[in-house]
């Protein structure tokens, strides 16, 4: 390969072109072209007879050298093929659309903040509307057993409930053990290690059991709902359901919502048990609390109402996670990228909403004295 | 015109127990437009993937520009691959990038090209593919089916390939768009000196732009010849394909168009 060259005659009126004007030589050629443009006379004459190979990149550079106005006629000595190529490039060459002016940083900051607030508001309104839609569909189909989708319901119970058992149990067990360790370390200074039992039972019954489950389910099942419905939306399957006279909410959303409403309390219960067992294991092995004493103290000191406080939140969280997951799925448009974006958004929103509602519930239960 | 740029010999492809190609031979000469036809599942796309190296054949060899792709590694293989532009069936445009950025990707990956030149070349390819300049700023999801194909063609042309591989370029286009795309390929071949390897079901495309037609059936290339010769074959599948009502209509249309 003979790298392309452009040589200016001493009087600055004639430019001789030679070698290969191809993409591989483009960086060097671009530099030469820029240099020559500054040095050459206003309308130099081109002698292109020395050009060996020419591709579109080279042709584009030739035209740049010719001052954009160029037609192929200005380049004398081109072969017929090269001439045809240059003609094609001339026809295809657009004046590049001007790059949009860099916007003012401060204005953009306010604009983005405004957009974010508007999106937040619209998302919230949409969520409330969607929850209403789910409740209405639920009320309609509950009185008509022939519209119940039992197979789908059990499939989703298996997916979201049964299959989540190992991970929920293991993680709750571990967190229970960690809480017990923390409690034991701090309470030892006060000689009150026996209160570790209450620490574990209160925290797991009231908060951690259901909260850990909800976070796990949001990441595991909420995201799956979004991805499933989202990819159906992207491939127009949701539209197909609609054209068959079926309601996508009935077919896709209700089984998922109901499945989560059933699985979540069960999983929360499991998480409570696993967490307390985890704590108990730590108590038994590192503190001088025997299994019998642990159970006794649990019975004595912990009221059942704490269990109900925790369990009451499970269906609420389940409903919110399922609603957000399904709604984000329906928001997917077209591309695979959109499925990914909405799946992320679904998980973030669910976890945010779950923790927010949990905080509100904590205040509520405190105020009513539970 | 006689130099062979693609040479496939004794190709065998197999997925599980299903043999797709058995002892398949194919030659493609420089500067021609070759149309590959065959029934659904006859392995047209697999053949394309084997030639461009996305699919490793069980046996046989594929030579591009006289180099054996199977034994070639590293930079020399990459150099050959850069001489091939591929238009995938559904465009395979990167959905997170605009059209102009999509076209610029192969250029950006070549170090040393100044940004202004990249932008210029990307705009040029978008023009060559017959898209309006403002299409460059759009995302693939905002384009119609025909524009997606053109944008993908622009990206395939980015590195000035010698061979252009097209997988069903006119599928899903309306007749006007399909005819325009055919003409575009013809123009590009003539002006850029491309060799075009074209998989198609579109009989109009076969009759209008293909120099030769390769018929894929019974796990091999039955015949690879100019269309007139292919039509005369007495193979049942070929007869059904070209002498069926659609084949005859396309032939009449092509003959009428040539007469005008």
TrEMBL record, chain B:
Upper taxonomic lineage: Bacteria, Pseudomonadati, Pseudomonadota, Gammaproteobacteria, Lysobacterales
Ranges where the ABC transporter domain occurs: 6-243
Protein name: ABC transporter ATP-binding protein
SMART domains tied to this protein: AAA
Keywords: ATP-binding, Nucleotide-binding, Transport
Pfam families with a match to the protein in the record: ABC_tran
A GO term, aspect molecular function: ATP hydrolysis activity
Organism of derivation: Dokdonella koreensis DS-123
InterPro entries referenced in this protein's UniProt entry, alphabetically: AAA+_ATPase, ABC_transporter-like_ATP-bd, P-loop_NTPase
PROSITE patterns in the cross-refs: ABC_TRANSPORTER_2
């Amino acid at each position: 390969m003979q790298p392309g060259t452009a040589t200016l005659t001493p009087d600055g009126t004639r430019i001789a072109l030679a070698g290969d004007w191809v993409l591989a030589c483009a960086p060097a050629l671009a530099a030469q072209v820029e240099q020559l443009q500054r040095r050459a006379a206003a309308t130099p004459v081109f002698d292109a007879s020395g050009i060996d190979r020419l591709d579109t990149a080279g042709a584009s550079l030739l035209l740049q050298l010719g001052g954009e106005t160029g037609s192929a006629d200005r380049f004398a000595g081109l072969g017929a093929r090269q001439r045809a190529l240059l003609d094609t490039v001339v026809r295809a060459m657009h004046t590049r659309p001007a790059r949009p002016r860099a916007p003012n940083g401060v204005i953009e900051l306010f604009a983005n903040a405004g957009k974010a607030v508007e999106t937040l508001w619209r998302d919230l309104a949409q969520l409330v509307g969607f929850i209403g839609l789910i409740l209405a569909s639920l009320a309609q189909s509950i009185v008509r057993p022939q519209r119940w989708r039992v197979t789908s319901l059990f499939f989703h119970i298996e997916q979201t409930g049964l299959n989540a058992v190992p991970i929920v149990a293991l993680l709750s067990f571990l967190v229970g053990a960690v809480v017990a360790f923390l409690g034991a370390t701090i309470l030892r200074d006060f000689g009150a290690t026996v209160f570790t039992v209450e620490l574990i039972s209160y925290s797991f019954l009231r908060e951690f059991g259901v909260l850990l489950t909800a976070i796990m389910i949001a990441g595991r099942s909420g995201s799956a709902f979004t991805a499933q419905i989202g990819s159906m939306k992207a491939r127009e399957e949701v539209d197909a359901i609609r054209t068959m006279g079926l309601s996508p909410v009935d077919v896709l959303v209700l089984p998922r919502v109901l499945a989560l409403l059933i699985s979540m309390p069960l999983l929360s219960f499991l998480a409570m048990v696993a967490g307390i067992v985890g704590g108990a294991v730590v108590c038994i092995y590192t503190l001088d609390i025997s299994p019998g004493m642990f159970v006794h103290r649990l019975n004595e000191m912990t009221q059942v109402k704490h269990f109900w406080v925790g369990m009451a939140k499970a269906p609420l969280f389940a409903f919110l996670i399922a609603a957000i997951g399904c709604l984000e799925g329906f928001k997917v448009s077209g591309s695979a990228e959109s499925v990914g974006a909405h799946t992320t958004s679904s998980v973030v929103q669910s976890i945010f909403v779950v923790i927010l509602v949990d905080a509100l519930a904590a205040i509520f239960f405190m105020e009513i004295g539970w | 015109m006689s130099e062979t740029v693609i040479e496939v010999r004794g190709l065998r492809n197999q997925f599980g127990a299903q043999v797709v190609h058995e002892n398949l031979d194919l030659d493609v000469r420089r500067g021609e437009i070759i149309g590959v036809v065959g029934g659904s599942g006859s392995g047209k796309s697999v053949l394309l993937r084997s030639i461009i190296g996305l699919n490793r054949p069980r046996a046989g060899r594929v030579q591009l520009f006289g180099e054996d792709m199977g034994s070639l590694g590293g930079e020399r293989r990459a150099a050959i691959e850069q001489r091939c532009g591929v238009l995938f069936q559904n465009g395979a445009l990167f959905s997170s990038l605009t059209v102009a950025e999509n076209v610029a990707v192969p250029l950006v990956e070549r170090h040393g090209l100044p940004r202004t030149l990249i932008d210029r070349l990307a705009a040029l390819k978008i023009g060559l593919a017959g898209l309006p300049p403002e299409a460059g700023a759009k995302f693939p999801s905002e384009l119609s089916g025909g524009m997606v194909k053109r944008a993908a063609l622009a990206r395939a042309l980015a590195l000035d390939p010698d061979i252009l591989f097209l997988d069903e370029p006119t599928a899903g286009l309306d007749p006007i768009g399909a005819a325009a795309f055919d003409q575009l390929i013809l123009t590009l071949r003539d002006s850029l000196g491309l060799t075009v390897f074209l998989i198609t079901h579109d009989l109009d495309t076969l009759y209008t732009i293909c120099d030769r037609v390769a018929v894929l059936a019974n796990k091999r290339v039955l015949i690879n010849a100019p269309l007139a010769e292919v039509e005369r074959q007495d193979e049942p599948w070929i007869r059904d394909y070209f002498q069926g009502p659609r084949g005859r209509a396309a032939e009449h249309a092509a003959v009428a168009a040539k007469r005008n």
